[in-house]
Design goal:
Layout (H helix, E strand, L loop, with lengths): L6 H10 L4 H5 L11 H13 L5 H10 L1 H7 L7 H11 L4 H14 L27 H36 L4
Length: about 180
């Protein structure tokens, strides 16, 4: 029912190659896990990609949408409380690691270009009054500072990705 070139299949293939050791470590070894953390991560990310951010929307999608069911495999749809608890308690400490892996794998597969980074810095003032203005020189000075910070961050990010790709390539057995 899902086309071969659908984004959910690409996402599932990428997620299957990721290392979830840190995510599973966030769970207690006592008790049971209702839905696997890997599948919960898939569902939460896919929900965000499709504009479904609330745990209740994601739960409803898991019960009705074929793509969400595909990501869950044969597991039953998680409850909205399970999704909310997963995001707030389990995912918070490991999200950076998982996103780094996701970006690296997408770049390795040629699905993501690391040549340009776009950041939305839109600022909208809601309650304007006579004291809510910004001097042009102040914005120019802050822009220069922000550009310098971004250059440093991008260098660091590229260096980390390059190191990650090299170590991943060395650890793969040759066929």
């Amino acid at each position: 029912m899902i086309p071969a070139d659908d984004s959910v299949r690409l996402l599932d293939a990428v997620f299957e190659r990721m290392d979830y050791t840190k995510l599973y470590a966030a769970y207690s070894r006592y008790g049971r896990i209702e839905t696997s953390p890997k599948n919960l991560f898939k569902v939460v990310i896919y929900g965000g990609m499709n504009g479904r951010h609330s745990s209740r929307q994601i739960e409803q999608s898991c019960r009705r949408d074929v793509n969400f069911m595909y990501l869950l495999g044969r597991e039953p749809a998680p409850d909205h409380a399970t999704i909310a608890r997963f995001r707030s308690e389990r995912l918070a400490g490991v999200i950076d690691d998982l996103f780094d892996q996701l970006i690296g794998l997408l770049a390795e597969m040629g699905e993501l270009s690391l040549e340009s980074v776009f950041i939305d810095g839109t600022k909208l003032e809601a309650n304007a009054n006579r004291y809510s203005f910004v001097w042009k020189k102040t914005t120019q000075k802050n822009e220069v500072k922000m550009q310098e910070k971004m250059k440093i961050e991008l260098r660091s990010w590229r260096r980390n990705l390059a190191c990650g790709f090299m170590s991943a390539r060395r650890s793969k057995p040759r066929t």
